[in-house]
Amino acid sequence: MQKEELAKKVAYLALLAILFYISYLMIKPFISAILASVFLAFLFYPFYIRLNNIIKNPTISATLIILIIVIIIIGPLILVAQILIKESITLYHLINIEQIQESITAFTEATFLRDIIPSIIERGLTYITSNASNFLISIPEKIFVFIVTIYSTFYLILAGDTFKKKIKAFLPFKNKEHIISNIIITTKSIIYGTFIIAVIEAILTIIGFYILGISSPWVWGVIIAFLALIPYLGPAIVWIPYSIILALQGDINIAIGMIILGLILSSIDTFLRPKIINQRAAIHPVIIFIGIIGGIQIMGIVGLLVGPLILSTALILIETHFQDEIES
Q1: Angle, nearest 10°, between helix axes 139-158 and 160-170?
Q2: What are the residue ranges spanned by the domains of the chain?
Q3: How far is residue 41's CA from residue 154's CA, in Å, rounded to a whole number?
Q4: pLDDT by residue (tens digit) across 181-211?
């Protein structure tokens, strides 16, 4: 009899494992979409509550919130794309390619880099071409993932209270309210800090580029705003190569000005970001950095914000677990 019971349990566990594995394979392509929808639902749920208190209709309120989310996401993307295309053409005509080529040639003629640089340029062009092709091919997939994200966000917003209750019931800790409160504070701190830094760096970039007389300051401001999501490295991705290009063109004074601007941006990123975030939650910048890099590798662009949130949440749960162990 015991053998039969054991066999049934083993069979049940095996079936459960198979079902979980198949479910994982089905969900795997949409993990980033699901995480993004959880993030968006969390972010916009307070607005949904306020709106629903006025309209008194959950479905209409959730639909209006979804429309706002779509406008917030797609609107700036279309605007930025138009500006980038227009200004990139202008920038291309302004850059003195021949002078840069002459500077590189003069530098490499007397050095061992003569044979290496053409190879590096060729590899770089191949990389850009292949990635551009892959991006164009993946556009239909990205649109579908976006639809899944919006669809999931709609139902998560509608089921916000139920979802919160289930999470609280699932957590095996004593201070459940404290954990949820910490996670909410941490999430808001990361979002608030990231947004403030992005705005500050974008404004400084626009002003700095305008003073230096560099073309397309608004475009570079937008680019820096997006790159500001990456701690430490963000602004440097722009100002270091741009300074080199200016120096190779012979614009030494502007190159020096660019370096000064870059150091200011990097200083803000290094010193101001931790202070803004730590005002509400004690999160080390390294945790945010690792969360962003790991998040991008696993989830793509969604990982920029979701990655640090997942990592910080995991650390909160681990810390709470050990506190419960010590108390017990």
Answers
A1: 80
A2: 29-170, 174-328
A3: 8
A4: 777 777 777 777 778 888 888 899 889 888 8
